[in-house]
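My hope is that you will study the record closing this message with an eye to the fold:
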Amino acid sequence: MKRGRLRSTGLSLLLSLLACGDPIPQHPSVASSSAQSSSSAPLTSAQAVPSAAASASASASAAVVVPAPAAPDPPIQLRYGGKHAVASSGGLVVSVDANATQAGVRALEAGGNAVDAAVAVGYALAVTHPSAGNLGGGGFMIVKLKSGESVAIDFREIAPATATTKKVIAEVEAGAGGYASMVVPGTVSGLNLARERFGSKPLAELLAPAISLASKGHKVSPRAAVSLKAQWSKLKGDAAAAQVWGNGKNPKQAGDRVIQKDLASTLTAISERGTMGFYSGQVAEYIDGAMKRNGGEITKEDLLAYETKVRAPLTFSYRGFTVETMPPPSMGGVAVAETLLALERSIQHKSKATDPERLHLFIESAKWAYADRRGVGADPDFMAEGASAADIGKLLSGLNLTTRIPKIDPLKATPASSFDTGQKSKESPETTHYSVVDAAGNAVSCTVTLSAAFGSKVMIPGTGVFFSNALGAFSPTGANEVKPHKRMASSMSPTIVSRNGQVEIVAGSPGGDTIPNTVSQVLINLIDLGLSVDEAVTRGRVHHQLLPDVVRIESARGLPDATKTALKQLGHTLEPSAMALGDAKIIVRDKATGDAWGFSDEREGGLAAGPKAEERQK
């Protein structure tokens, strides 16, 4: 493989035609676009993948026009400020870990742009947030330039060349851990590609905070301590992991200092040699040797074969805003798009915040989205050319949204048994998200994962790196069935919302299957309900993913009794959940002034900060 070559895949789904009525042919085609390859340029001048409108067929007479709701007039004004929001005119970084956030802030203070800051955050999270931040996993990133152009950077993990469905089933049945569960990681390639294409700072400068945190040590955060305690029964069985993250027989606790010499060496190799510092050389030798000794599937050839993909974001209009989210292999972005487009047509935004009617329509729309997403949210590079784009274009069309069966009944819940459910596999919720904007208006929304908490629960000796166990994220059959070097489907849904090309909201969350519903609800809170960023994030959430046929409600942020009673009367089965639904890291930006307000969800904690940032209410 030629590591210097960037392979670009064009899935372009700008559905702005829905804003004025969408012509949907029997076999809709979606124009594709390609990124420029390999050349490195700063964000202020880089050329991004352009989004293109969904094109009609040559036979216009065969098209069916289904008008979409008109954009609000006057346009919606987002609410700025917030009692607990952090404000800054110099850019903002929001992540689950204070050290990682500060690494990003330092990049901004040094004159870096949003991508520089995001790369610094990503590498720091690999040190301080080991349950999900990583070098041995993957993720998705949406980059939006101040010019208005956008790209989706896909650095999801890939299956080893020898992976088979039989092996996937066997490792899941064996507990979905250990070397048999490991896949080829993409995080290092993805972060470095983002910096090469859009960053302005040297890689060594952006890696310096992470290297310092690993070599000199850092204190275990309260959130990391909770994860360590929850997973210690498995982690203590791995000698390398236990040595770093344990105090004898017990896990390190919040406030304990942890030093990671091997991880510092790996990060130094990346700092000095770039992407090849991880995918070849000593680090690759450690990985290859450990695989051979322990029955793993990943080889040096697999590592060299990894390529980050640059795709066009899945783009659609919602109530006068342009929403850009992750295309396949994300099935999360598809679910966000279908849910919001259906709600826009149901006029749910006219209901009050806890109105049972509004929640009912959201739940019913989510059922449809979760029924559909697995059929189209697979690796598009393993489908017929253009098939993924055409299928999604048809799915999100006004024709489908208004004619699909079963129809959304405003007076009662539709049983899950009424839907064609497709695959029923469950996705692990342990992921992490961070959001960044800079003073110029460039923005990054990025979600990364090891699949399960601490991935495979194995740290590759000599590297300090936990490897993902995402092999189990493939399905036994269908579009998401495993193939050599194929990407597995994911719910990760990094999202950026803009108007007239200028960023107004940066959003995302961890949470596995709950991610699309979390992102959708936060956007509804901001756009439809007019909440400030802190209110939009802290408000209680609900979740329905079709199966099981229940509505999960956060116990700590429950609904009013009257609302719960009304939902039950509509036929919904409610299930209180002690587990939080997501962990949103959100930024709201005033495109006129460049001021930004951020908030780090208290469900997992973290820090929102920026150069000269301050807490204030506007």
Q: What stands out?
A: The mean pLDDT is 89.
